[in-house]
Amino acid sequence: MPGGKTPAVPFKEAILQCLPQGGGLFIPESVPDLRHLLLHMGEETSYPELVAAVSSLLFEGDLNPFSASRISEGAFTFEPELLRLDQNFSVLTLYGGPTGVFKDFGITFLAALLEELLHDDTAMVISASRGKTGVSIARAFQNRRNIISALLYPDENIYGLARETYAPEGGNVIPIRIKGTLDDCQRLVGEVIRDRSFSERYKVTSANAINPGRLLPQAFYFLYSFIKLKKHITGELLFSIPSGNLGNLIAGLYAWKFGMPVNGYIAAMNINNPSGEFIKSGNFEDLKSGPIVPTVSSALDISRPANYERLVSFYKESPAVMKNMVYTETVDDKHTLETMERVWKKYRLYLDPHGAVAFAAAEKMAADRNFDGHIVILATAHPAKYAEETRRATGQDLELPDNLASLSRPAEPVAEIKPNLEDLESAIAGYSCAP
Ligand SMILES: *Cc1c(COP(=O)(O)O)cnc(C)c1O
Fold it and tell me: What is the pLDDT of residue 2?
């Protein structure tokens, strides 16, 4: 990886460098063929078993089967759960992780993978995020050997970090507030990585979605759904994905590239869907990103998806195939809340607003096409994190599990800086862990 003008580098380098020096994103040059594996794995295969088997093929040359098992068992003390609702619909719950959101899956795997790949080397993982994803990154990286995790927050509130995990207190997490927006934070991460001397001095990489080591492991739960379902379904198989930065959609497309039999993906969006328009038109030069309208499915309120470039590269490679592979649906707030209510009444299942957007999109698709196949709906957040919306939609009170209750506790940064390299260096210097 990657293809095109940038020279190919081994997967390990891509994870440790995060971004190619010449610009753009790392994109796998070739992908493993997992058809044989998928044929042999079945309902009895556990998630860590699947992850170990797939990742030793995916990262061939960098991970032997023992390392792959160590990573997958160390990372996945939580698992996705596939709930088969009826002949047409299943829900894949992805909120069993430490912070109750699907992002735990990719980030936790990346943290375990980095720790394993580094051996006695060190790394400084610098990531830009808002409070919610920041805490997912902090939890995944805390206590990892030889890794410091610097979190760049925009000028907003910070939540859920425990003081004893901070580097000045002997831990390895450095929360830094940047006087600027999330865009400024993201730009700074890119600058740091592309500043060769800075990034070599501190061995910088990132846990943002730009890192292929966070994105590719999200393909694992698509494969997992397939092996759980394959004996039970006959017709078409689709996945419905609540889509913001398009990470899950890209991961699903990789699962297909790895040889998973699937008929398509529904990119389910709320009313902020400039990339939905793009997908429909196929005119990817022209992504119109207007102002954001706040919705109940706030993680989908995105104007320019971080993985846009990766999606474009799929379209460039095989435009005709992609046209029949990715469908988009738009779901507004009213419909989202109605779906939360309907799903609760019909299946006694709580969905968070993002899962409900995907569910509503799946229902629309099934109705429009007189569909008699099966659609797996990704439920991306723990419904109890959206207690207010759940109460509005169902009249029910959900109690927050203990591990999620601490996530909204206010926290303080260790430094507050302007978005530039010099200030960032003085904030992190002194904490790089000596090998
Ligand atoms: C981040 C997030 C999404 C969007 O996922 P992408 O992979 O960025 O498209 C959906 N739902 C929830 C709950 C999220 O936190």
Answer: 47
